[in-house]
Amino acid sequence: MPIPERMNPSFAFAPPAPDSLEEARKRLIVALDVPNAAAAMQLVNELENTCQWFKVGLELFVAGGPAVLEPLVKRGHSVFLDLKFHDIPNTVAGAVRSAAALGVRMMTLHAAGGPAMLAAAREALNGVENPPELLAVTVLTSMDAAQVSAVGVNRAPAGQVELLARMGRDAGMRGFVCSPQEVAKLRELTGPEGVLVIPGIRPAGAGVGDQKRVATPGDALRKGASYLVVGRPITQAPNPAEAAEAILREMAEALNG
Fold first, then answer.
1. Which residue of 62, 146, 196, 221 has the fewest CB atoms within a 10 Å radius of its CB?
2. Which residues are catalytic?
3. CATH topology of domain 20-256
């Protein structure tokens, strides 16, 4: 499932693009984790000339429904729909088809749904023109060893991430979400064709909040991340556009390195 050229990043271990700042813009996804459409559009207006990608997650989608995606798509932004589908294969396949019709460019489902669910989701996009990228979520970045153990997994988070990624790869997935701590291992596993979307990104000096497994933007890119998801360090900053530009500069420096 090829990525359209307009959203295909050059990975960190490849020679950087001539304009590394523009390359960084292709890789930064701003998380619109806000309570309503009005707040989301205020942020989009502030970031319009700075950011290309926006993530719509559960909070905003439940509040505003599919209509919250329409202005983003109409303005030419790339939309990452982060609803983490996890259900029986037939239900997930239907949800994937419905989401694809909304014009999103990436969407998530839980790898823990198993290989049959992942395969059904992938097959649901057969015949869809310019299909979105499917991303299998491995282990949430809010989960450390204690949290993983509490749900009955007798492996460290890194081991569980690798197990789920191998299973997902065998089911035909090439896109994954993992924490910065596992991105280097997953880059080895997927090779250059893998699409690795990394949340838990915190600029140096920023608070980690409820995240457990985090890294700076530069570190994540150097380890092989395809895209970085950043929320609160941008959206809760006094000047979101300035905060985004600072992160883009840090990303560009890593790409130049």
1. 146
2. 84
3. TIM Barrel (3.20.20)
